[in-house]
Amino acid sequence: MLNVAIIGASGYTGVELARILCNHPEVRLTAATSRQYAGQALSQVFPSLRQKTDLVCENLSTDELCGRADFFFTAVPHKTAMDIVPALLAAGKKVVDLSADFRLRDVAVYEEWYQKHSAADLLKEAVYGLPELYRERIRSSRLIANPGCYPTSIILALAPLLKGAVIDPRSIIADSKSGTSGAGRAAQVGSLFCEVADGFRAYKVGGTHRHTPEIEQEINTFLPEPVRISFTPHLLPISRGILSTIYAQLHPEIQHADVTQLYEKMYAQEPFVRILPDNNFPATQYVRGSNFCDLGFKIDTRTGRIILMSAIDNIVKGAAGQAVQNMNLMCGFTETAGLEGAPFFP
Amino acid sequence: MLNVAIIGASGYTGVELARILCNHPEVRLTAATSRQYAGQALSQVFPSLRQKTDLVCENLSTDELCGRADFFFTAVPHKTAMDIVPALLAAGKKVVDLSADFRLRDVAVYEEWYQKHSAADLLKEAVYGLPELYRERIRSSRLIANPGCYPTSIILALAPLLKGAVIDPRSIIADSKSGTSGAGRAAQVGSLFCEVADGFRAYKVGGTHRHTPEIEQEINTFLPEPVRISFTPHLLPISRGILSTIYAQLHPEIQHADVTQLYEKMYAQEPFVRILPDNNFPATQYVRGSNFCDLGFKIDTRTGRIILMSAIDNIVKGAAGQAVQNMNLMCGFTETAGLEGAPFFP
Amino acid sequence: MLNVAIIGASGYTGVELARILCNHPEVRLTAATSRQYAGQALSQVFPSLRQKTDLVCENLSTDELCGRADFFFTAVPHKTAMDIVPALLAAGKKVVDLSADFRLRDVAVYEEWYQKHSAADLLKEAVYGLPELYRERIRSSRLIANPGCYPTSIILALAPLLKGAVIDPRSIIADSKSGTSGAGRAAQVGSLFCEVADGFRAYKVGGTHRHTPEIEQEINTFLPEPVRISFTPHLLPISRGILSTIYAQLHPEIQHADVTQLYEKMYAQEPFVRILPDNNFPATQYVRGSNFCDLGFKIDTRTGRIILMSAIDNIVKGAAGQAVQNMNLMCGFTETAGLEGAPFFP
Amino acid sequence: MLNVAIIGASGYTGVELARILCNHPEVRLTAATSRQYAGQALSQVFPSLRQKTDLVCENLSTDELCGRADFFFTAVPHKTAMDIVPALLAAGKKVVDLSADFRLRDVAVYEEWYQKHSAADLLKEAVYGLPELYRERIRSSRLIANPGCYPTSIILALAPLLKGAVIDPRSIIADSKSGTSGAGRAAQVGSLFCEVADGFRAYKVGGTHRHTPEIEQEINTFLPEPVRISFTPHLLPISRGILSTIYAQLHPEIQHADVTQLYEKMYAQEPFVRILPDNNFPATQYVRGSNFCDLGFKIDTRTGRIILMSAIDNIVKGAAGQAVQNMNLMCGFTETAGLEGAPFFP
Prior knowledge:
Four copies of one chain form a homotetramer. Chain A is α/β, with parallel strands linked by helices. Chain A has eleven helices and 14 strands.
């Protein structure tokens, strides 16, 4: 059994990691850190976990952590992650970092969108943890930058079309809608039930959301010349789920069957990507609680555009589940271990 | 007091018409028809209306109806409306029709998207009931085609930019999200609480929703050459509200202030359009229960696109409220009569 | 026009007062105070109010307030209210206090459940603002203690039966469920969307909620000997609404028609109490946004108990609406002024 | 591997059975019947199941069914079940019936609350499938009557106190609140999103819900003289979850620690019952998607009553999960097999 620790266990990503890991056949959860809840049982912070774990939240030094576990999930805010990860690696540990700190390979881009980077040397080493694109590199990596939730949903939908060079990449517009767990567990007025329920809105409109450069980085790996895309996030009155609706100009000769073939070619063997039949469109409620990414599309012959739709559970495939998938790859476990539960419906 | 009847009172548009009209200072609600609930008090069908109306649902002939009222709201499905409206007009009555039957001025387009039209001669006479565009014609009309909910939200957002000729109309993409009341009150599995709650999906993707030609008709009134646009509807787990996020390529020399000016010029005097301050974006929860349309926008200088956002309550400004606004204009009442309530928040 | 001020305008009760008052035919809203949002337009804090009010939130002294208005709604936490109200009264103003500070007539009871009272002399003068019980006294009062939301729903349901002496008052159990707006607008983890949505729980179980003595005070006005009742509040994943389900042992000879008669006798003329027909039960969605209290009941002949059900909108009849109803009475306005809107459904 | 069939797979209990069984280590799902969806893949009816099962819904005769599987879950309406079950048993199969048809041991009581019983001889043999009460009998049974959702939540909360004889059983009042999945997947207006969302109501008030005799049957097994209890169901705007709040008069000498001891004695070893610490109360969101029943209580010393609270997921411990737990016992599998997933939060 692998000893595993969650650094930053008191957020929604933390509790979801704990949920998955407490039933994972290959690991033992040996530490969960939280400054705010230090001394409290994790199952007191999250009563859903009663009888599933008796871990107590602790405020541990890196040294103490290294004595406790061999594999780490860092589920802390960006900037905090870059302060912790180097020491873990130096101690010979493997890390999946769920923050944004190691996702952007170009330090200049990182510093433009976030702030100064104090561990920039690790950017070249870190592997972007999207198994559908980087599976082999993930297997041999010691530091995985777990993708953002929006980028996961958007990149998986676009990759086959970009690879197949069937769309005009400059025309890409991603209109994404996320459940409120994406806003985290911080006590703020904007996340209160009465502010969110029975409502809907966009936020960080106009290319200002920090997932924009992350999406562009991965899109541009498929392109001879880099493009910029439009990305608009919205806040849904649901707890879990992201649906991205993505528009692009399709090359005129491309037919429905061609697109299906591109998807099949890239994802037919993927354990967590489901390509929907014609005229079936993804819905967040059909991936709820699972590591699946559901993909569907429709060609609008009136306008020459293709509309892609992608649904994930933002805290599973968009965070904790994908992190465990990465751990499985890094440690030689079955890739789907701990992630085999079917979605919850209703 | 004007005697008013609602034909088709048992749907969500019907109950909203009744809610508004029972407090309207100039009208008396004298009939409400429903085949399904004939004989039941309207306040039995909708207990929210108890003590607000003692109308009983009836299954009336057109003759009987004409004896009851001088103004009619037809809140019935398309095709049914065209069977009723001609007789009402022939009897000298005024009508706001909330179906799609008289919205499309070109009968060929109507028949392409719906079915054969049996009252095509009225298409030329009917006025598209968007007061912000057609106020004067509405005042003198006897037949108003009340706009669809999605078209209302999209056309109001686009009109100033189209009039100002500052965007490329071929680039328009409208990604719209609607509350579930838009699906009506029919008993169907897809509208059940457990199918919709805690979920989100697109439907009628790829230019197949019947509001598409309606949106295009109005957009094209501003253009020398007709365009086709992309429109994707989505189903939100809320009862009321539409948010449309609209993308278009902005002419490169146009600045934020130019766009603001176009909105101000067109809507500054409008009683039901609110232009939000910079960096404030519409949310459905801020228009809930009101006849307001909230408009906001952001220019994405990275991509040269402008993102417009528009929020309405789909059964008020998107249906019953706009219908009453049209009635007010047709009858010489204060335009805002019965519609002055502020939105409900939370 | 009466000049009216809201002290504590930035909570959910504050915004609801503003919503109602901005359409009230007899008043002008002249001040809204908020420490936290001082300097911001009220319509910036609550964008729902755009174009309905141009008030700016201020942090005003009592002297300044007295120069601004003649009637005050104090929508501040308990303890804060008792610091403000005496000076307003001393300046000759009328006040509806929405806190708990003047609801309990016995200072010892207040101090047992809250803390020391610094204006205990006003307790005798303050009138408990439930118009259905105290209408005449309210008319001539200058200080109204606006009832709590739970007590409003429970007392209105019980009063006719207590007055008629048809139940055993020691057997009363009130199981109440409230929407989340009742928890206020403070940023706290327990009120976050993800903590409340898709869930349900009890809180302050076992006679520990501070509305308990308030309910008992009013129940005991009908009784020769005081009783204690069981009251359990629950948190509903909705924004607005309280439903109370109340159990009591019914005297064996009492029939359904007797109970109906008691309700009719007490409430038939009440503008805001709706007695439902047999086998119709209240639902929060049928009073949403209105000042109605819907009452229904059923006798369980198997157990000899009567089950009463009462539905209100907790921030209308349970707070802001009832406060305005009280103002109407105190100022000689039509009792229903500003409160005539029908409930919103759906 | 045991071959298992679900009869009536197209409801919410059916899909939940499929979700659990498709990951169960000891069984193979070999048939799923549905008249309405015959010929459609189960994963077409419920897209959540894509890639988890390739079963096709069929309309099979009992003979065909018996050739397909050795263990059956009958998830059909009452009355339909009694038509199917006898033939399955006659063919030597084991059955967990999720309808009400075999829950009431007294045929007269069944016929009073339902209709004529055509397989009354099986009532004596059928075991009420609440493992916490009847584990040993379940192990050796071939026909399990899977308990109703409300009864499960109420009986588990009351059993220790009834066994300990510390409450007055005539004083029991159960106020229960259920998620909407309990109303099933039939297309009916009352279950539409817009009718249920943002609302709350009671239904079948006054001892008229058919779960009443089921609850009383099990309560009365602990009592020398039978009692009748009050039970009021309510409809929550959530998909999954039941919370029951139960009131009873506690014998005056009984202390908090005594009650805790009774719970511990009965449930300390139970895999699916979690006794909460003092002043912790159950919430449906903490058992969502799991087979747990969370129990908490509080003594109200002011009134001498004890308030019990019980939370389950109505379609897991209240239906499909408990059915699988029963199958595990009947077949000698680990009792928790397939049911070990932690609850989903948020």
